[in-house]
Design a protein that fits this description.
The structure is a homodimer. By secondary structure, chain A is an alpha/beta fold. The first copy, chain A, has two domains: 7-64, Uncharacterised protein PF01937, DUF89, domain 1 (Helicase, Ruva Protein, domain 3); 71-281, Rossmann fold, CATH 3.40.50.10880. The first copy, chain A, has helices at residues 7-22, 26-40, 49-64, 71-93, 98-108, 122-131, 141-150, 163-171, 194-199, 225-233, 241-248, 264-270; strands at 137-139, 154-157, 179-183, 207-210, 236-240, 255-260, 277-281. A seven-stranded mixed beta sheet of chain A has the order 1-7-6-5-2-3-4, sandwiched between helices. The model of chain A has no long low-confidence stretch (mean pLDDT 95).
Amino acid sequence: MKTFIECIPCLIRQAVDTAKFVTEDTELLQRIVKECLILAADFDISQPPPASARRIYRKICEMTGNNDPYQEVKARFNRMVLAMLPELIRIVGSSGDPFMTALRMAIAGNVIDFGVNGGVSENAVKRAIENSIQEPLSGDISALRIAVERAGSILYLADNAGEIVLDRLFIGYLPADRVTLAVRGGPAINDATLADAYAAGLHEMVRVIDNGYDAPGTLLDQCSPEFQKVFADADLVISKGQGNFETLIGVDKNIFYLFKVKCAVAAMLSDLPLGTYAVVNGNA
Amino acid sequence: MKTFIECIPCLIRQAVDTAKFVTEDTELLQRIVKECLILAADFDISQPPPASARRIYRKICEMTGNNDPYQEVKARFNRMVLAMLPELIRIVGSSGDPFMTALRMAIAGNVIDFGVNGGVSENAVKRAIENSIQEPLSGDISALRIAVERAGSILYLADNAGEIVLDRLFIGYLPADRVTLAVRGGPAINDATLADAYAAGLHEMVRVIDNGYDAPGTLLDQCSPEFQKVFADADLVISKGQGNFETLIGVDKNIFYLFKVKCAVAAMLSDLPLGTYAVVNGNA
């Protein structure tokens, strides 16, 4: 997708949230926001929002000398969800439809998004997981089940740290020997990187790669040739989160997008109400 | 107050809302947003947000060649509330505490704010008025009553068009011969100007003046000498809306601020939850 003008204030809000997260130095904060406004005046709005989010995030990292501000947050949310995992495995396993229950929990994990909400709390995540069973979900789950059964190779695009532990839960109901999990190629807000995939233990279940680029989404033409090949060769792509949805929607590929609808633009594009657990079939 | 960095994304959001309201020309919209971002990088954040909101609004007017984009909206909301007025006068008059009921309705009118919400609907306004009786209200109303009784001269600072008709309802319970009502000196979003005060019939009840400046607030040092004198001479100032609160809070004057708390920064400054009907005693 292109960047809508409604995305611009949101990207500036993300800049303010990230800057406040990284520093308490008022003078530096003001300089960062000023630089991000100048940067935003120069955004290429033919590109999806994560391309601009990356430019803002890199600018803040550069100005604060901190290359991975959310490193500690990512580790903390991984630990938190890992601590819940045995109980969640039990709940999923004893549910009437484990695939569906695990899918819902994987989407619930999508609340751990420091781009959309700079102040995600551990309690909010626990509540989201607890409530995941009854949240409004929209999408053709049978089509996803069939696509999974038929696919010789599945590329699973992870989104955020913490969330990736819930992806592990769901991936447990996919054919592990046919799944490749891909994470970001470098720090992008609290998006999962290789360190998070390892922390979540995913390397013990499936093949794990990174996409070679540090945007909070999948900008295919910026990704590494290795990733591009895996993407091209995959029979099915399961794409987590709004960032991947924003960067891949419209790509001619068998993709199912799993995400929580978090903003008016994504609601408009998916034709689903805010807050919906979306399972969007990119082919339909 | 100064401008907080949290205000910057909100001011950009206001720019987008206003630009979309004024034009549907995508290319012009993009140029407007770009110019507003460049302008925002140059904001004087030692000034209150309405000073920056004014710069954005003037820029959009200049770029679209439309000096008063909300003129029709202002007239429409005046007409709508005027049509409700006889029934509201009856409800207020037959209530146990007409001063309080009218005060609540005047604050309910504060939802007609195209700065905070670019898509205020007539239904939302009707609902706000109907619900005004039971909304959480915070403030020392006895202190306001006493201040009104004691004041030889009262300056009432209006906020938005439409809302000003509900101010008329409340002003009916103030000593009319001692009240001066002041509006903006020129178009500022949907803020009330002289035309709105006349449309609301306020000139038949009290002395009506304008403040000589076109910001969506009261930037005293930019206002006309005539307004500054009325302000200086007033024993009591009743200030409607967040814009007046943001620009006057901290001024050494006997001011009661009546507004609905509409953003996190105003909530923090007033120490009241979002959505509260606030009656803030500037002296307390």
